Amino acid sequence: MAPVGPRVNVKADAPDGYRALAGLTRAGHPDHVLSELIKVRASLVNGCEYCVALHSDAARAAGVSEDQLVALVNWRESTLFDDRARAALGVTDLLTRTESLAGCRDAAAGPTWSAAEAAFPDAELAQVVVTITAINAWNRVMIASGITPPG
Question: Among residues 51, 50, 85, which one has the least CA distance to residue 65?
Answer without folding.
Answer: 85
